[in-house]
Amino acid sequence: MPNPASPAVTIVGGGLVGALLACLLAQRGFAVEVFERRRDPRVAGYAGGRSINLALAERGLHGLRLAGLGEEVMRLAVMMRGRMVHHRDGHCELLRYGRDDSQVIWSLSRGRLNIALIDAAERAGARFRFEQRLHDARFADEVTLQLVDEASGATHTHQTPFVLGCDGAGSSLRAAMNRAQALGERIEELGHGYKELEIPSRGAADAATAFAIEANALHIWPRGNYMCIALPNAEGHFTVTLFLPNQGAPSFAQVNNAGAARALFERDFADLLPMLPEFDADFSGNPVGTLATLYLDHWHLDRRALLLGDAAHAIVPFHGQGMNCGFEDAVELAELFAAHDEDSAWIFAEFERRRRPNAAAIAAMALENYVEMRDSVADPGFLLRRELGRVLADRHPDRFVPRYWMVTFSRMPYAQAFARGAIQDALLHELADGHDRLDDIGLAKADARVRARLQPLTAA
Ligand SMILES: Cc1cc2nc3c(=O)[nH]c(=O)nc-3n(C[C@H](O)[C@H](O)[C@H](O)COP(=O)(O)OP(=O)(O)OC[C@H]3O[C@@H](n4cnc5c(N)ncnc54)[C@H](O)[C@@H]3O)c2cc1C
């Protein structure tokens, strides 16, 4: 239990980022109280509402290791070696993410991860108050949170010197801060939505044969302007997500019932459809999720309130980095709190200074990755540049690192990965455009350009 004299921290939102932050701060001796709108998932079952599973990469894993959860989480996760691309003609190919199995990502149940984090935070001394929804906040000398008890409907208030907002993309704290002082909020809709479907487990006793398709991959059916993906779950089933424009042909406006969806799948995802026995019920019953990027000019209200995770910078999911980025936020903030006696105004400003450029960079890369997943992975020019990039990475490991590797397998600041990635991409275009085969590209010229254009990583 925390020392009664420990500095108090109030967090709104006990989702992925709020629960990790609570754990890291409680471990550092802070008296942490978390107000969470939902019921306790350990009692009520996990009410996710979106994306049943998530891809975990090095940045997120680092935060979980600091919370002491590295091994526990790995036991719950399914390794994904690369993208298994399902082409229109039915043939499949695995595009490995990294060099070998030391460079992979992990598929993890959102609910199980959230529960593991809440348990760890409570073990460290944090106190969760479930079914407490933030309704509004007033910012005077102290912050007054107006909370609604979701079970009884009763309202009550909570006074705190400052509050940390981890209440997700639709953050109520952000809305209250924005009313007190404009945060410069801009929400850019992607114009595409998503719907979740399921490939069930074969029900085999043996985990290895339970999966209907290759277990250790993120499956993609790229179809130009739209796509399906499937991520494995530890129990042997896959969560399939259809990403489709909201308007046009095809779109969710047009494909708005199970019959129309079946016709789309018969035409474009013919090998996937037979694996979806509950297709009609899933399509009719599951909502269309919206996708948008949130930009804010300010993440904090002087010393009184700070936003982090999706509440500050929700992004589209195509790099599988939203949670990973939010976990980096939690690590950075916990370290700032632990290392500095300065008041919260300084800590919040410093946090925003360090994190905002990185959030902007991953937001841009996530948008770019949608085009790559739904379209480029089936484009010969893209595949040639990708192959060349991997050759250059072998020849110049200190200078040329594919952008996906920098984002996914390292903790290099996102902004740095974005900037280096742009130089590398221009270089790959210069060298590969006009060629069909790797053998036709002069590697001596490529080597000279890498040395001239890319600083060694240690000096960057
Ligand atoms: C389809 C999809 C797929 C994704 N895939 C990936 C992936 O593969 N990898 C990855 O890294 N990221 C992925 N993401 C992003 C990831 O889901 C988010 O970045 C992550 O959930 C952010 O965590 P958070 O704690 O900031 O917000 P949330 O997870 O949204 O948690 C917010 C919490 O606050 C609570 N809350 C909300 N309002 C209130 C209130 N008024 N009062 C009290 N509590 C409140 C909520 O109940 C919730 O528990 C994906 C997102 C989507 C939509």
Keywords:
single chain; 460 residues; alpha/beta; FAD/NAD(P)-binding domain; seven-stranded mixed beta sheet; 16 helices; 19 strands; 40% helix; binds flavin-adenine dinucleotide
Concise summary:
The protein has 460 residues and is of the alpha/beta class. Helices cover 40% and strands 23% of the residues.
* SS-derived structural category: alpha/beta
Strand content: 15-25%
The CATH class designation of the largest domain is Alpha Beta
In the residues, how many domains can be counted? Answer: 3
Q: What is the makeup of the main sheet? A: 7 strands, mixed
CATH superfamily of the largest domain: FAD/NAD(P)-binding domain
**What is the CA-CA span between the terminal residues?**
44 Å
How many runs of DSSP E, i.e. beta strands? Answer: 19
What is the CATH third-level topology name of the largest domain? FAD/NAD(P)-binding domain
Describe this structure in words.
It is a single chain. The protein is α/β, with parallel strands linked by helices and 460 residues long. The protein folds into three domains: 8-76 and 109-187 and 292-367, FAD/NAD(P)-binding domain, CATH 3.50.50; 189-290, no CATH class; 379-459, no CATH class. Helix content is 40%, strand content 23%. The chain has 16 helices and 19 strands. The chain has helices at residues 16-27, 41-44, 58-66, 70-76, 110-123, 172-180, 207-210, 258-268, 279-285, 310-313, 322-339, 344-374, 380-395, 403-409, 414-432, 443-453; strands spanning 8-12, 31-35, 53-56, 78-80, 82-86, 92-96, 105-109, 127-129, 132-139, 143-149, 155-160, 163-165, 186-199, 218-222, 227-232, 238-245, 289-295, 300-301, 305-307. Strands 6-5-14-15-16-13-17 form a seven-stranded mixed β-sheet. A six-stranded mixed β-sheet has the order 8-2-1-12-19-18, with helices on both faces. α3 (58-66) packs across α11, α11 (322-339) runs antiparallel to α12 (344-374) and α15 (414-432) runs antiparallel to α16. The relative contact order is 0.12. The model has no long low-confidence stretch (mean pLDDT 94). Residues 12-18, 35-38, 50-51, 54-55, 133-134, 166-168, 172, 194, 289, 309-311, 317, 320-324, 326 line the site of flavin-adenine dinucleotide.
